[in-house]
Amino acid sequence: MRSIPPARRRVLLAAAGLCLSAVLGAAHAAEPLKAVASFSILGDIVREVGGSDISLATLVGPDGDAHEYEPTPGDAKKLSAASVLFVNGLDFETWMSRLAKSSGFSGLTVVASKGVTPRKFAAHAGGHGHDDGDHDHDHDHDDDHDHDHDHGHHHGDADPHAWQNLANGVIYARNVAEGLAAADPARAQAYRQRAQAYIARLQALDASVRATFSAIPADRRKVVTSHDAFGYFGDAYGVAFIPAMGVSTDAEPSAGEVARIIEQVKRERVPAVFVENISSPRLVQQIARETGAKVGGTLYSDALSKPGQPGATYLEMFEWNVRQLAAALQP
Length: 331
Known about the structure:
Blueprint: H1 6-29, E1 33-39, H2 40-50, E2 54-60, H3 73-80, E3 84-87, H4 96-103, E4 108-111, H5 166-183, H6 188-214, E5 222-225, H7 231-237, E6 240-243, H8 255-268, E7 272-273, H9 282-291, E8 294-295, H10 314-329
Parallel strand pairs: 1-2, 1-3, 3-4, 5-6, 5-7, 7-8
């Protein structure tokens, strides 16, 4: 067999080495970006934008209550391995800074609600209102500070449930896309393209929701819900929500507070009361019994449903809630 000259052999070996490096580099680049989302609704938005380019872990899963969540050692392990963390912000995950510190997380933190105009909680029964204007929380904070409010059950002035307005969902999707692009520049274009397609679906649904409620007489658009999670929804789509338990899902209103709600429901002829997938139905059922208001279906407020049930994605959750509300409020 004809021998290869030494110079030619060196060239071939160098070329082979470059090819191997390129293959290994491509394999490395193709590895999914490791991401963590704080709760299920945000996790679904991240999944839509990230697609197959990410490997996502969601801490508070379907039907989970982020208000009362206690992180686990498994959560710390997931976070320590991640390159990017997505949080809602607006003091929603008051337990997150403790978890990030204990996990040694050193990646990028993305606040999905950055740019949202925050609403303040209105004063209401249960003593959970914060309408005193003494505290003006910055909605762009990144959860680096932790207030330790009674295991995360209290959220200050700002209402954290901004995803309940689909226009804010658009802001979330854009922030997620930019966060993924910053953490993974090689695939930035793919993230942004997915976000634009997803945003178009959010905007189409938003227009449909507005049309649905505008067709219902204004004096019928009143409902009682378990806790104060639908303020952004009410502001955006013209529905008045009366929260039975304030913002805290573990709150127990006094007998006097319950009596005031019952009187309000009777006085304003509120047509329907709803339970949520993260709350006990007992109080809402009592209000329905004593007022004659119709018990509507389950609403999804802070968490998606389990797969295979209505509300398993952010879009499905919104469509389900709208159908339940509209059916109960029709004259």
